[in-house]
Each structure stands twice: as structure tokens, then as C-alpha cells.
Amino acid sequence: MFSNMSSGATVVLLDETIYCQPLLRAWIASIFLEGDSTSSAPLFVVKWTDKIMDGFVHRTMEADPSRSATSVNKVRQHLEGTFSFGRIKKYSDVKSPEPPAPVERHVHAAAIHGSVDYVVTMHCSDSAERIDLSYEIYSADDFLVLLDDSATSTVHAVVEIELCRAHARAKAEDGVDLPLLLKEAGAPEFSKRVRGHLQYVDPKILSGDC
Asked: Tens digits of per-residue pLDDT, 1-55?
């Protein structure tokens, strides 16, 4: 069951590599905002730190020097507003134990201080070091699959939301292929789940009549 039984909702820490993937962060944020369709409780809580957001800004501007600091910081402010109650403060990574690969020391320290259940990173792989931790390490793909396993109806609702958004962004002649976009963004297994959801989406939404 996707929940922290002791404190309610599952606590998730996304590192800067996730925030640097616009499509994947959008899906995670959409599922977060949609919430648990079976109750009024949140499906999960997203934690973040100033250092993670600083890393997101730095990586984004390094990858695309043509972008202005103002535009990237607007994205940062939007993300911080979306996850407004998730800021982890007053922690130190100086005395934290050596983190497991592929987690950075400051992320590891924040995860421990913030009582995090999952750290989600684009650097995760099958060969990632697995040791006795207070949290689990997930790739974005595996985390999205976990969400679909635990909250299928919520993910289905978000598939329809993201499909409408994709249609709004796309040129009329291009069409929309959500599974392909997700696969190219680094979520091949979740893309298969979305393809399954699309079989049960209203044909009007499939055609862009949202």
C-alpha cells in the first residue's frame, strides 16, 4: 500500500535531476495535485530543499544558456508553490553519513532529516547500491509505476488531464502520442501503463475534444 502508516501520506523527496525533466515533473505534480480519489487525504507528500531547487536552476541554465534566470526562477517558484508545505529546513549535510550511490550527500541528509520514504532520482539504476536505509531509492519510471499500482483511478484521471494539455500544446497536424513522449523522457515502463489507460479514455478526449 502506497502510504506511510505511521504518519499518513507517503513522503517523497525528488532530487534536482527530476525537476530538470519537464514532462516527468509535470506528471508527478499532476498526480500529486489530483490526490487520492478514494479519500480526502493526499496520496503522497513531496519534500524539497533550497539546495535541490538551486541545483535545478543551475542544471537548467547550464543545459540551455539561452534561457534567462528570470524564466527559470519562475518555474522554481511555481514548483515551490505547488509543493508549498514540503520545504525541509535546518538540516546539515556536513555530518551526515556517506550516502549510497546514486544519492548526493545533501539529498541523503535531507531525506533522513525529513523522514522521507522515497528518494526519486534520474540517476537510479539496477546497479544502484542497496544498503540498509530509512528510505528507498526509486527512478522516476519506477516511482510512476508504483503510483499506478497504488492509485490506478488517480493516474487514469491524470492521463486524461495530460492528454488534453498535450493536445493544447501540439500543432493540429502533429497529433499526440503520450506513451512515446514518456518513453523518450526516460519512463519506458510507465509509458506502457499509460498506453493501457488510453484504451479506456473517452474517444472525444483522444481526438483532442477536451
From this structure: 455 433 468 999 999 999 999 999 999 999 999 997 677 777 999 999 999 999 9
Cell 498526480, residue located: 31
Residue pointed to by grid coordinates 543551475:
58
- Give the three cell numbers for residue 41: 487525504
Rounded Cα distance between 48 and 105, Å, is 14
Q: Are 123 and 102 in contact (CB under 8 A)?
A: yes
- H helix intervals, the chain: 16-19, 22-34, 50-63, 69-82, 105-113, 140-150, 152-169, 178-185, 188-198, 203-206
Question: Nearest-5° angle of CA 88, CA 142, CA 115?
Answer: 25
* Pair 42, 79: CB distance under 8 Å: no
Is the pTM higher than 0.85? yes
> 10-146 has which fold?
Rossmann fold (3.40.50)
In contact, 31 and 148? CB cutoff 8 Å: no
- Give the pLDDT confidence of 102-128 residue by residue, as tens digits: 789 999 999 999 999 999 999 875 544
What is the length of the chain?
210
Ordered by start, the domain boundaries in the chain are 10-146, 151-206
